[in-house]
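Checklist before submission:
- one chain only
- standard amino acids only
- sequence pasted in full

Submission:
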Amino acid sequence: MVTAEAAAVLPLVSVVALTLVWVVSVGITQVRVVDAARDAARAVARGADERSATAAARRTAGEDATVDIRRGRGLVSVTVSEPATAPGWLLVPLPVVTLSARSQVEDEDDTSSP
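Returned file contents:
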């Protein structure tokens, strides 16, 4: 009887474990996207060119990341988005979730402000 109960519960335990791995993977990707947006915004605000800031953001967030840099009203705004995919070793097709983060920093290189 214990074997039958274990056989019935084992698939549920497997699904819960896979879900936890997926949630942790998405969380790690979100932290990387937030860090990339913050670092790129700081770099552009300090005078770095947009190409190097974009490259730095993609090194942190991942090569699939999209980076949008905007300047205006004395602020630098950087938005980084990246699709979060399940780790390849899971061997289970899970949905792709697009994560994004936005960071705004005062433009230290802005010559238009008093």
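Reviewer check: The longest strand covers residues 75-84.
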